[in-house]
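Hey there, shall we discuss this one?
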Amino acid sequence: AVVSTQSTGYTTNPLQRWNHCPVPRCSGESKCWDGLQKDYRGPQQVTKSGEQCQKWTEQSPQQHSRTEANYPDSGLGNHNYCRNPDNEPSGAWCYTTNPLQRWNHCPVPRCSGESKCWDGLQ
C-alpha cells in the first residue's frame, strides 16, 4: 500500500479517478487564538490601546520577571510579539514601551475553527 503525505480526492474527470488536493502544510505556529491564547505565536506587536510592545528580553522601561528562562516554551525571546506566558485569563498581552502604561492586552485575531492546513497524514 502507498501512504501519501498529501490529501487526495476523487475527481469528476472520467479519465482521472483521483488527484492530490492542494492543502498547504501547517507551519506549526499559531497566528490566531482560541481560549487563553497561550499557544499564540504570531507577529502582533501593538496593544489594543495602540502602544508598541517592549522586547521580552529587555527590562526597560518595564522591569519584569516574564523571561524565557522563567517561562520556558511560552514563546518568549528576543522579540516584542504579544504572548501569554502566564495564562492571563484575557489572552495575549505584552509590556509596553510607554513608561506610563506597564502592559496591555493585544488584538490577536480569533481562529475560525476550520483547519486550512495539514500536518502529517490527513
Remarks:
- Residues 1-5, 118-122 have pLDDT under 50 and may be disordered.
- The two ends are 16 Å apart (CA to CA).
- The beta strands are 8-10, 18-20, 93-95, 103-105.
